[in-house]
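---------- Forwarded message ----------

FYI, see the Raf-like protein record below. Original note from H. follows.
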Amino acid sequence: MKISADFTVIPDDFAKAAAPEYRNGGVPVISFPFYIDQVDPAARYLHWAFTDPDSIPVCGFEWIHWTVANLPIDALMFDFNDSHALAIPPDFSRQMPAMIPEAVQGRNSSASKFVGRDNDPAVTMRYNGPQPPDQDHDYHLVVWATKQPLAGLNQGFWMNEMFHKLRALDETPDQGGIFLTGTC
């Protein structure tokens, strides 16, 4: 599987410099677009995690920005004029609950008891854009494709629960990833 984007530095609309209308409670909430190509033809579901390993020295843990599970590949729009097989559009995180209710989004690090944010699901259980406080950070997006959904994951799951479900499958998930940079 190959994951790509039309940028290597996350554009302002999806990160720290997002305009006020692209924020909720000061947090950037418009998810960035990306592409998924060369997916195993037997795969039927997508799952992903978007994290910030560079946050470990800053806050003591890898910041979780966005997790998604059980997204049916057939539910995604295919643009036959586009060279990419699957396109995740901008603002997919906020649109997904209405468009594809069977797909679930997990909690991000804003839901952590160590961060002290409110419990607004629009901030804690969807895309939470990069806002590096100290220097540019490298972010990691990993996507897995499976034949079966990950049973037992509900809205607001934790990333580790998704990892346990992926490891427990009777198949080896197809996977791919990309590193992106977020500016300070």
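H. also flagged this: Residues 2-182 form a domain with the Phosphatidylethanolamine-binding Protein fold (CATH 3.90.280.10).
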